Amino acid sequence: MTKRNIEAMYPLSPMQQGMVFHSLHRPGCGVYCVQFHCTLRGSLDVNAFRMAWQLVVDRHASLRTAFVWKRVEQMLQVVHRSVEVPLTREDWRDYRPAEQEERLDQLLEQDRREGFNLSKAPLIRLTLKQVADDAYFLVWTNHHAVLDGWSLAIVMKELFACYEAFRRGEEPPLEKPESYQSYIRWLQRQDMERAEEFWRQTLRGFTEPTPLTFDGGSMRAPSMSDHYEESAIELSTTLTGDLESLARQHRVTMNTVVQAAWGLLLSRYSGEDDVLFGATVAGRPAELPSVETMVGLFINTLPVRLRLPRDMPVGEWLTQIQGRFTEICNFEYSPLVHIHGWSEVPRGVPMFDSIVVFENYPVDERVRSLSSDLTIERFRAIEQTNYPLTIVSAPGERLPLKVLYDADRFASNSMDRLLQHLRVLLAGMVSDPTQHVATLPLLTNEEREQLVVGLNHTESDYPRERSVHELIEAWVEEEPGAVAVRFEGTEVGYGELDRRANQLARYLARLGVGRGDVVALSVERGVEMVVGVLGVLKVGAAYVPVDPGYPAERVRYMLADSGAAVVVTQARLAETLPVGEARVVCVDADWAEIAKEAESKPGVAVGPEDVAYVIYTSGSTGRPKGTVVRHGGLVNLVEAQRVAFGIGSGSRVLQFAPLSFDASVWEMFMALGNGGTLCVVRQEVLASAPELRGVLQAEGVTTVTLPPSVLAVLEAGELPALQTVVAAGEACSLELVRRWGVAGRQFFNAYGPTETTVCASMYRCRGDEMAAPPIGRPVANLRVYVVDGQQRLVPVGVPGELCVGGVGVAQGYLRRPALTAAKFIPDPFSGDAGARLYRTGDRVRYRADGNLEFLGRIDHQVKVRGFRIELGEIEAV
Predict the structure, then answer these.
(1) Under 8 Å CB-to-CB from 659, ≥6 apart: which residues?
(2) Who contacts 184 (Cβ-Cβ below 8 Å, separation ≥6)?
(3) What is the pLDDT of residues 341-383, one digit of tens each?
């Protein structure tokens, strides 16, 4: 660059500054390199074509511009007096059509990666590949900082006008254009104080970007990816026409309709009712003379804040958005970097991760009719922004919707679903503009069917008319001598265990305990614990485990809240239990009296709807609450364990969990309900890793359920007898999966709240897993749904609250009708009017493979990672 060849120097527009900055910051990745390619069909006069391009570049200062940023106080754009248009020609006619297409793809990729030396003009280049006697591939690449979409249409019109003139040997009849510098001067005259006041007011209270949580996008660190891909669809002509009618009816633009749909989709994906995204504006001020014929970069990206009113009709909401967007356009000259500074979003944190681009210029239609002897086919534009997600649309007989995305953050199938969700939302808008915004559909019919039915195809036969103790009684009849319980060297067979439980049941019946009653059980670990559980069940009552180590105040509360008239305990514990008016039965000191009862079954009819046990929560977030669990759910669980783990007469199951934890139910009935042996050890032994390892080895335990934190201190190779390992209660790491999921051993990751009969879902892990394991799919005869705060199903990949339905759902919370009503809600998906769902309060999402991924607890009081759930005026849980 020489001084003689400099025509002008002036500052950059705000948008130019941003594009140049990102291009310099990420060289070699093609960011803001815009690529147009098409097929020219006909008799092309290559010399006239080259001359036409040169004349167009000579006419417009922006096409002769480069940028200077070194050794200057502020970045400048430098307009050269003359530059030569780089045009590369090559003959590809010897290649087969398939090879030509392959070479074109390679050329486009290489050309994008080449980028531009921004300090050297012109920032455009042309490539012409002849592929037939009457056909050429044309690739036109330029840097976005010198040209916007509207300018593209101007350039194309002038190009072919010049081409036609030169081909006929004439001079093109074109008027001198206005320079881009006049726009820069206009920008410098704008009132930035008014703009600051407007944007501060507009963005007040918005402190963080709306998360792109679907597909895990927002949970990954921002990448410097150059791996961008695109997905696209076109709406039908009927739907497009209906949308245009909707826009006319409510006096809004199609741009507004598309923005509204994206804002709504972003809200549904993030769980936010207040969302922020970017949108490009044309930026051509009407008061600037001849602005419609200027060539340069006029567009700007501005934040669009949409609040999603649940009860506002769609049409009224669109009108509201249009009015707000009109206000924004009064300040469309505002630099985005300044807007960011005026907002409450911290520096260094992006204001938004997605933008909407509505290309309101008819390039594709106009270029098809610009030459008498040439036709333009397969016209396509490719551009990469610095945003993870860009939604692109434009006018047309069939409205196009395209998403350009960072492929290192988002999967292609997620983007395909995203476009279909946009289509469904847009179709919903036109179907009834009077419906409320919150009621607009999101899922396709196929998607809803998959979420409701396909992923919940869990129907399986189980002994649905039996009670859980009847399962054990079946093993008593089949193998009465088989070992049911082992404890400190003592073995108790199924027959003996059953006889002792029958005697206790009859004794309790003589005290007035019967079907539907509640009996508190406070015993230390051992055979008497198991006898106590079975004795209570056989009399038709429900047991309430009360840990002997609980503080007296908690025990007093549980006994009073449960209404237990009888407490089954041991003599050494009875002295300190604050039992109040309850009757105390000591299974050790009173056994001589209990043993006088008959050893036969008490003959109490117990069915699947009867209550088996009531387990109280820890009460860490309020008063402890008793979860009421029925026999039907427990029987189903036992059968599901048999099928999943292969539990049978040769199985030895460790009783690890205390009786007051629902995991004890999982372990106890897994063994006894399937003919296995329950290995019980004292609590203090389980607290030491060496002693626990010794127990597992000495007892030859084949099946164990342990928290990942306990599995982490054990060595898998030291336990050869262990055939099935279940991780539960905590998040399971990939390291544990690889350590324990060795050949010849089953390793499961299990999940489930107490309210779903211990387990709601399971996943069998592989030793070669590449990521932390999911929590899997629902167990037999349970259903799972992922919903948002309005109880609407959310798509695969989108976080929501997990709701569980099916036979395992508990009856509710004992004596807590308001809380039961809030957490156990009608199931709108099953088609059964009496079916209920349990709202877990856990945040999950479906992976693409149909497995559930656990993301954490939902905070019911505040926003957590962009998801909010409202419980109204009920007790927090």
Answers:
(1) 521, 523, 525, 529, 533, 545, 547
(2) 10, 11, 12, 13
(3) 999 999 889 999 999 999 876 554 555 555 567 888 888 878 7
